[in-house]
């Protein structure tokens, strides 16, 4: 069965984006770029893959499907890009965006997990992660050496302590630490 993996950048204080949804404060140093290129190339938007040295025919390694919330899609929409990850099967959950998924994300993801293929990437945001927390099998957090103070939290939900076990920690020279956790 496929896993739902929440692969996301986070600040030390647990925010995935600024209050306005911005992510431009995250360091994107060469060591992090290389880590992503070699381990998770499909997590880079289609329009930036070639400029970052990822040929268009590079196979997906971890994911073939992604689910995201409307706020995660908004930066691409502001650039006129409707499908920022055209090399993946994209599903956007929104109550207002035409053509988006509007039903129960939990049931939808449970069905996706039953299909054959690579794992499913929960791309963001915090609200969708909160709704899907019970379905998250693994967390891959690119913990950045940044304190934001406020913003969109890693997970927004009611109080519900959920335990995960640390699988690996990969420190990068830039100070980013890639933490991988599995559901306990």
Per DSSP, what share of the residues sits in E-state strands of 2 or more residues?
25-35%
Give the ordered list of helices and strands: EEHHEHEHEHEEEE
Shape: globular
Strand order of the largest sheet: 4-3-5-1-6-9-8
Instruction: State the CATH superfamily name.
Output: Dihydrofolate Reductase, subunit A
Q: Average pLDDT across residues? A: 95
Overall number of structural domains: 1
- Strand count, sense and closure of the main sheet? 7 strands, mixed
User: Can you tell me the CATH topology?
Assistant: Dihydrofolate Reductase, subunit A
- Uncertain spans: none
Distance between the termini: 17 Å
How many separate helices? 5
